Amino acid sequence: MQNRHQETVGWKRGILALALAVGVAGAALAQDEPEQEEPPAPKFVPRLKYSWTQWGLRGSDHMFRRYGTPARGFVLTDLGYVYATDDARYQSDLTVRGGVDQDLWVGGGASMRYGTTRFEGAYRTNEYYDNVPFEIPISKRQEFDGRIVQSLGQGVGLQVRFAQEQKDAYFAGPREAEHIRTRTTDTSLKGKLLGGTVGIGYTDYRYWDRTNAEPDSEVQRWTAQYGRELLRGLDLQANYSHSRIKQPGREDSEIESVGMNGSYRIGERTDLTFGVHRDKIDLPTVRTAHAQERMQFNSRLNHRGKDWSAQVSYRHKEVERIRKDQSFVDVPIWDSVEAKFQTKVGPGMRASVRGGFTHLRGWPVMNTTDPNPLFWTDTRFAQVKFDRTGDTYAFYAILDHRFRKNDARLVDLSTTSGTLGATWDVGPGVSLFGEVVRETAKVSGTGGDAANLDPYFPSSISGAFGVSYAFNPGFHATATFTHVGTNNDNPMFEPGGNYRGRYLTLGLTHRAENGAEFAVTYAPWQYEDKVLSSLGYNASVFSVMGKVRF
Amino acid sequence: MRLETIVLAIGMVSLVAGAAQQNRQSEPKFPLSLFAKATEDDYIGSESCAPCHGEQVKNFKYSGHASYSNNPKLAHGYQGCESCHGPGKFHLDEDNPENIAYSKITPKEINAACMRCHGETMSAGEWHSTAHAQGNVSCTSCHQIHPKPFGEAEKPDISGASNPTVVAKPAPKKLLKSEESKLCADCHKSEAAQFRLNSHHPVPEGRLECSDCHAVHPTNKSRKDMKSVKGACVSCHAEKAGPFVYEHDMGTIGDGCAECHRAHGSHNPELLKSFSRGLCAQCHTEKATTHYPGRTCWTAGCHVAMHGSNTDPNFLKR
């Protein structure tokens, strides 16, 4: 009950703050309304998109509905309007999507610029189903976001923002339902000062859990930053923030951050960027291992040649970490070096090579069954990219390798992914697209249990191929085929571990000059779960869609 | 102590470098040099551009820039066409025509020109420190300054072959060249490919945009302030923010949520980096075979409060 009271009070405060800001803005406006030419008249553009879709589904409804599946039956795919001036001085929009027994999405917003003030507001609500094979309540989410931005002249601007979110989400067990409310009130002022840019801000963030499983939280955060070009070529910015986190029945937690970033132009083609940052974290309620202080320094040297550029960066990170039993402080230190080189290798051809490593010193001691550190002691990565673009084609290839190692636990984990893709405009109106991505993972160790980990790291392959043919500027056909599959030992025979999906989508679209559109889609989709066949499905999606814009 | 030492060292280096640099101060480089040497008479007004550049002048009024730069109270160098393209009189000089033609100048020059105005909210130093700036990406790589009139910009979309699962596309923002996710995918191809995997954040479905998580401009910092408490993820997944009495320590030491999740997409359920108990066992190796729950550590119904618990140190309940 108290939570609800606080929420109501919060709403009132938020509205009061917005109203106050409107008053301030209005007063400022009255004094400083620039003389401008007559604003263009707004246009009202309503639109309607309606579709009918048949799934032709045999198999698991749960898996079929999992990601971005087209809605079934007669569905209002998009009903809405935009009412706006050409120069975006005024704009409002409304969108409704949904069907009788489908997800529902309603959202709208308005923004208006009047002289030196801009008002923005948006509201969204959606109802959706979680993908479970049995009936659970419909989840619902509502968001409101409103802000006022006021120019106060002399390069100074004020922003007041108020946002609220309400989420009631239901899941399959054992995960419990979530009934979450959040509210953010944010005020910031930014402008010029002593030849630089200064900003201060205050944020009040509230979190309520209506299930009472988690404590309500209140975060109050102050921020300040100042930056200026100190000398020619040398830019420096300093920033500070302080957050206080309050939870009922517990001591307050505090996080204080101070940092400085800068860039220095050494020459016409060379510059250096650097930054140092420190967080002090006081979390008296936390009883397990946690960091109480973090410090990070990073620097990057950039050089640009005529057709190439190179970067070398170094990062140093230290963390003062309280052990789980609160008895001692560890100070693990990470040092990272990264380099990147990119160049044009010919007309329309670019290549880049990137690599780096991170090394951990001062391993923390663990108060777990195994006292060896849980963190990776060494990580390395390398990435090669190549792309070529011509008048009618584009080709790209990416190879990425990452290696992680825990010396104490004798675990090595390496992942490699390769991507090949191309587009080709074969002739007038005909274009092809293809992309293949292969990912492999391997885990090895020389002792302990590490040798048993490899089966839990599946490899995968995915590919997408498509062709589109435009008969004329308003009439075109597309055909796409997507394949996704895993190669997984899956020793516990878990569902979702070994699957193969094949999705063919054929479409025919006609678009009139006035923007009206008519489309027919046929999509035989197949998903196979090799462990639990009841999770597989065969669908023959047939869809007819009509769209008009008035 | 170490921090203070580093700050002091940086300060010293900065001062020395700055002093050295000051000794060789030079005139502003192109394109800022055009504005630096211009007098009031060199600005001839946008109406003088229309006879030759009628299409561009006509479309400029549809740009969000128009309502700002048409303000007669602004200095001449910040009004109309000349605010971006430089003084018109220089362009008309028959012997040595000079202006800022964005299709012909380098990314660095383009960015310098834009920062003349946008430096108020984003300093040059902030821009230089971004990966985009260092990768020679210019403002006009993503933004269009002369948009078509509202409602007339759309053309028949035959790109369905590259994005077959899209069910709802957000409208392109006024100053972006195209739909945001498509724009980003033009360069970040391997990231875009991850959205094809079975488990992914709903970007292809149009329910999220890249900028919901990524700060493309430093000015987005203000939007991300709240997120810095425990990374960008908790602005949507607020229930995982904590602090919890029993924290799973990832948020303060490792890569945070990315220690276990692949944000763009994964072939494993729930965007997980690896499948089933392999995820936990890559760190907790001693549990790999000796602590056999039959299913994953959480779907077995045991460690259900994996992100942190207020009641149980082993995350057995929330």
Q: What does this protein structure show overall?
A:
The complex is a heterodimer of chains A (550) and B (318). Chain A has a domain of 65 residues. Chain A is globular, with a radius of gyration of 28 Å. Helix content of chain A is 6%, strand content 65%. With 550 residues, chain A is mostly beta strands. Helices cover 30% and strands 3% of the residues of chain B. In chain B, the strands form two sheets. Chain B has a two-stranded antiparallel sheet with strand order 1-3. In chain B, strands 2-4 form a two-stranded antiparallel ribbon. Chain B is elongated. Chain B starts with a helix and ends in a 9-residue tail after the last strand. Chains A and B meet through strand 3, strand 8, strand 9, strand 10 and strand 11 of A and helix 1, helix 4, helix 8, helix 12 and strand 1 of B.
What is the string of SSEs of chain B from the N terminus onward? HHHHHHHHHHHHEHEEHE
The main sheet of chain B comes to:
2 strands, antiparallel
**Spatial order of the strands forming the largest sheet of chain B:** 1-3
Q: Helical region count of chain B?
A: 14
Which regions of chain B contain 5 or more consecutive residues with pLDDT less than 50?
Answer: 153-171, 220-229
Which two protein chains have the largest interface (Cβ within 8 Å of the partner's Cβ), and how many residues from each? A-B, 179 and 111 residues
What is the residue-mean pLDDT of chain B, rounded to a whole number? 74
Taken from the alpha-carbon principal axes, the silhouette of chain A is: globular
Relative strand content of chain A: over 45%
**Biggest β-sheet of chain A: count, sense, barrel?**
26 strands, antiparallel, barrel
Q: Brief overview, please?
A:
The complex is a heterodimer of chains A (550) and B (318). Chain A has 550 residues and is mainly β. Chain A has 2 helices and 28 strands.
